Amino acid sequence: MTSLSDVKVLITGASGFLGTHLIQRLCPISGEVHATSRTQRPNVKGGPLWWQADLENLGAVRSLLANVKPDIIFHMSGLASAIQSVEFVLPTFHSLLTSTVNLLTVATEAGCQRVVLAGSLNEPQSKDPEIIPSSPYAAAKWAGSAYGRMFHALYGTPLVIVRTFMTYGPGQDSRKLIPSVVLSLLKNESPKLSSGEWNADWIFIDDVIDGFLAAAQMPEIEGVTLDLGMGTLVTVRELVEKVARYVGSSSQPLFGALPDRVLEPARKAEVMMTFEKLGWKPKVSLESGLQQTVEWYRAQFSSSSMSPQLR
Known about the structure:
This protein is α/β, with parallel strands linked by helices. It has helices spanning 17-26, 58-68, 89-110, 136-155, 177-186, 205-217, 236-247, 271-278, 286-302, and strands at residues 8-12, 32-37, 49-52, 72-75, 114-120, 159-164, 166-168, 199-200, 202-204, 225-228, 234-235.
C-alpha cells in the first residue's frame, strides 16, 4: 500500500462533515495536506494548507492543481442535500457535477497517483436505464460517478469511487436527522419526523474515513466502485427510538408529523466486494456509534462555548 507519509494530499470540500474528519486523520500522518473551501480559512499549526477555490470554475481548478501538484486527491466538494425542490436543480448540478468534471479533466491532464471520488448511496444502482434518481443531488452524484468511470476507461485516470451510505457521527450538520433529533430531545422538544418507515444503511464516520484512507492506498484497484456501509438496513423509526433512549429525554419523537419523501431508495452496502478489494470492514456497531454521537452533542450542548447553530 502507498504510504501516506510520503505523499502530497489534496482534499476538496474539506470544510464539510467528511472532509473535516479526514483532515483530522490525515494531518498527523501525511507528508503534506492541502484543503479547499469556498470561503477563506486561516492556516493553523498542525492543520492543512487551505486554498479558497471555486471548483465550478475551470481556470480556478487549473490554478489549484498547478500550485499544489497533489499525489492523491480526495474529491468531496459539493452541496450535500437531497432536497427535492426544483430550485436546487441548477445549484446542485454545478456544485456537484461541473466541479467533478473540471477536477477530473485537470487531474487527468496534470497526472496524479490516485483520485478518490466520493459517491453516494443516493445514486441509482440498477442497470435499468429507466430508473429515476430521487433528487437533484442523486442525479448529479450519479452523473459524476458515470463521468469518473468514463475518465478511467477512456483516459486512464487512476480513479476509485467510494460510495458512502448513511454516515453519521460527531460534528455533523445539526440539520441532519440524527443531530436534529438529539438536539431537539436535549432541549426537551419533540422532533417532528416522517413516518420513520424508510430503511437505510447507517455507518459511523470513523469507519467511513478508514475506508477512504484504504481506497487511497491500496494498489491496483483503479476503476472500481466500493460501498462503505454496514450491509444492514435499519428503519428511521428504530434508529430514532435508539437515539431517544440514549438521550434519556421525556419528550417523544412525533412520527408522521412530516410527509415521507417520494422515490427514496432503500439500499444496503455491498460490503463483501469492499472487503475483498480493501480488507475493510466496519468496526463500530450502530449502538456504539449512536452512543458516541449522542454524548458528543450532549457535551457541545452543555458547553458555554457551544456553537449558536446548536442552540
